[in-house]
TrEMBL record:
<keyword id="KW-0064">Aspartyl protease</keyword>
<dbReference type="InterPro" id="IPR021109">
    <property type="entry name" value="Peptidase_aspartic_dom_sf"/>
</dbReference>
<keyword id="KW-0645">Protease</keyword>
<dbReference type="InterPro" id="IPR032799">
    <property type="entry name" value="TAXi_C"/>
</dbReference>
<dbReference type="InterPro" id="IPR001461">
    <property type="entry name" value="Aspartic_peptidase_A1"/>
</dbReference>
<dbReference type="GO" id="GO:0004190">
    <property type="term" value="F:aspartic-type endopeptidase activity"/>
</dbReference>
<comment type="similarity">
    <text>Belongs to the peptidase A1 family.</text>
</comment>
<protein>
    <submittedName>
        <fullName>Aspartyl protease APCB1</fullName>
    </submittedName>
</protein>
<dbReference type="Pfam" id="PF14543">
    <property type="entry name" value="TAXi_N"/>
</dbReference>
<dbReference type="GO" id="GO:0006508">
    <property type="term" value="P:proteolysis"/>
</dbReference>
<feature type="domain" description="Peptidase A1">
    <location>
        <begin position="199"/>
        <end position="554"/>
    </location>
</feature>
<dbReference type="InterPro" id="IPR033121">
    <property type="entry name" value="PEPTIDASE_A1"/>
</dbReference>
<dbReference type="InterPro" id="IPR032861">
    <property type="entry name" value="TAXi_N"/>
</dbReference>
<feature type="active site">
    <location>
        <position position="425"/>
    </location>
</feature>
<keyword id="KW-0378">Hydrolase</keyword>
<feature type="active site">
    <location>
        <position position="217"/>
    </location>
</feature>
<dbReference type="Pfam" id="PF14541">
    <property type="entry name" value="TAXi_C"/>
</dbReference>
């Protein structure tokens, strides 16, 4: 009968005879037919599985029914977890302290873990570009130094116009004005340090899509291609000139036009029909043009293609060394932090996360690759430093606290906020030190005369010769020492360093001499900033993470990019 079923059990334990003051211990159990799971659920008794029997109570085999005479009886739950709460609290406290310390030191890692909860198919993917190699010989004076600056416009000259294929006026003159800030104007990558002095990739522009080969430049804001508008002064170029249509022209009222012309001190031109710009580079080259908008065809790392509209420069007047380097390229791919740069435009449209990376091979006959997005950023093994954040500076900057040649430190000659600033610039062929650091490096290299290396006079680059012709850097690199840059870190215990081996900062010229790829930067930029060019960045995967405001690098052969899997959040 239903009334005969056992509804519960009460266990009463009497105190020991020798100590009746301990009192009785009462433990009660109740049985119920309510199940949150399906009723055919097995319970474990000892090591065997048995079907539950509701007609009797099954107790754990190690449950003490009677306590020893010298101990007080305790309830069932306290008996099972005796001593555990204290240990658990200690372990949890240690874990919480460890998590707090780790999150304080590496907040970006926790953010990466949180973001990994999204399905790989739902999150933004990356664009991969090959970098191409230039094999033709050139003159040693053709090496590049970018760090472009947009110049102020003279509004009085904007009304002096002439007709062109666009049917809109162009300024006949642009002049410099006091700059408010330093602004700079996976893909396969090709190029070299010497003799060509640049690395480049290609993008597909227009409809139908046509390839344009562009110099990758983390020190420039604006992407531009040589164009027929018509062209006043253009280099030979690799592809036919880009020919825009009237509907491609960007209005001067566009927000990105205002971004490009932000260094202009004056009122907007009320009679303008387009957005004009001029970029002045640190090597005194310049590019003049008008902003246009056209369709870019891009291939993602997962193989899918996308078409999107992007704003770039239609450059119809190039001057200076820039003309000489436009023999294998058609323009510049601006990769800086500025809003007008290509990665920033893609990120603003929700296409990628604003992360830029490049990997330049140490092999002089290879190029490497470049990517936009964060799919190819390694989860482990990267050396990260904080990016200097300033609303008026779009360069990828950080701060160095020490530079060593071998074990000998090189001094800085600047003080204050600019002391120790370092710019990562893939648009510069060589690396530039401050005047004092450069002078000390040259003085340290005087010891090379003991090894038979004779200094050759040169106005631009210091070179050495030997009695026999030097075929490669490998023949002489044992006489030189590595350069090591030590960066600021949050904790003095952790030292973040970037090493530049001799094979990176040395080049062999066509006369068979070995030359120093570190130059005097006293006349470059503000004269107090170290600029790391392509030669210092070879053999490394370098990442500019604009989401977490950090710059990172790790050694790599730069041949095969690997897409990184996200760690699950646990």
């Amino acid at each position: 009968m239903e009334s005969d079923k056992i509804k519960g059990v009460v266990i009463i334990t009497l105190p020991p005879p020798d100590n009746p003051s301990l009192g009785k211990s009462i433990t009660a159990f109740t049985l119920t037919d309510d199940f949150s799971e399906p009723p055919r659920e097995s319970v474990v008794v000892g090591q065997e599985e048995q079907e539950p029997n509701r007609n009797h109570l099954t107790l754990p085999l190690d449950l003490p029914i009677q306590t020893p005479s010298n101990q007080r009886s305790i309830p069932l739950s306290r008996e099972l977890f005796a001593g555990t709460p204290r240990k658990l609290v200690v372990l949890l406290s240690i874990a919480l302290v460890a998590i707090y310390l780790y999150s304080s030191s590496f907040p970006e890692t926790l953010q990466e873990l949180r973001s990994s909860e999204k399905n790989d198919d739902d999150r933004r993917t990356s664009l991969l570009f090959p970098l191409y190699f230039q094999s033709e010989l050139g003159d040693s004076s053709d090496f590049q130094l970018k760090l472009g600056r947009t110049k102020g416009l003279n509004k009085d000259d904007l009304s002096a116009a002439f007709n062109d294929v666009l049917g809109v006026p162009k300024p006949t003159k642009l002049i410099s004005s006091t700059l408010k800030s330093d602004s700079s104007a996976v893909f396969p990558v090709r190029g070299d340090i010497y003799p060509d002095g640049l690395y480049y990739t290609y993008i597909m522009v227009g409809e139908p899509p046509r390839p344009y080969f562009l110099d990758i430049d983390t020190g420039s804001d604006l992407t531009w291609v040589q164009c027929d508008a018509p062209c006043t002064s253009c280099g030979k170029g690799r592809s036919p000139l880009y020919k825009p249509k009237r509907e491609n022209v960007v209005s001067f009222k566009d927000s990105l036009c205002m971004e490009v012309q932000r260094n202009y001190n004056g009122d907007q031109c009320a009679t303008c029909h387009q957005c004009d710009y001029e970029i002045q580079y640190a090597d005194q080259s310049s590019s003049l043009g008008v902003l246009v908008k056209d369709e870019f065809t891009l291939k993602f790392s997962n193989g899918s293609l996308t078409k999107l509209n992007a704003i770039f420069g239609c450059a119809y007047d190039q001057q200076g060394v820039l003309l000489n380097t436009l023999s294998k390229t058609d323009g510049i791919l601006g990769l800086s932090r500025a809003k007008v740069s290509l990665p920033s435009q893609l990120a603003s449209q929700g296409i990628i996360n604003n992360v830029v990376g490049h990997c330049l091979t140490g092999d002089p006959a290879s190029g490497g690759y470049m990517f936009l997005g964060d799919d190819f950023v390694p989860q482990w093994g990267m050396a990260w430093v904080a990016m200097l954040d300033s609303p008026s500076i779009d360069f990828y900057q950080t701060k160095v606290v020490r530079i060593d040649y071998g074990s000998s430190p090189l001094s800085f000659d600047t003080w204050g906020s600019n002391r120790g600033r370092v710019v990562f610039d893939s648009g510069s062929s060589y690396t530039y030190f401050t005047k004092e650091a450069y002078s000390q490096l040259v003085a340290s290299l005087e010891e090379l005369s003991a090894f038979g290396l004779i200094v050759q006079d040169s106005s631009d680059i210091i070179c050495w010769r030997t009695e026999s012709s030097i075929r490669s850097v490998k023949d002489v690199k044992q006489f030189f020492k590595p350069l090591t840059l030590q960066f600021e870190s949050r904790f003095w215990i952790v030292s973040t360093k970037l090493e530049i081996p001799p094979e990176n900062y040395l080049v062999i010229n066509k006369e068979g001499n070995v030359c120093l790829g570190i130059l005097d930067g006293s006349q470059v930029h503000d004269g107090s900033t170290t600029i790391l060019g392509d030669n210092a960045l070879r053999g490394k995967l370098v990442v500019y993470d604009n989401v977490n405001n950090r710059i990172g690098w790790t050694s790599s052969d730069c041949h095969n990019p690997r897409r990184m899997k996200r760690l699950p959040l646990f």
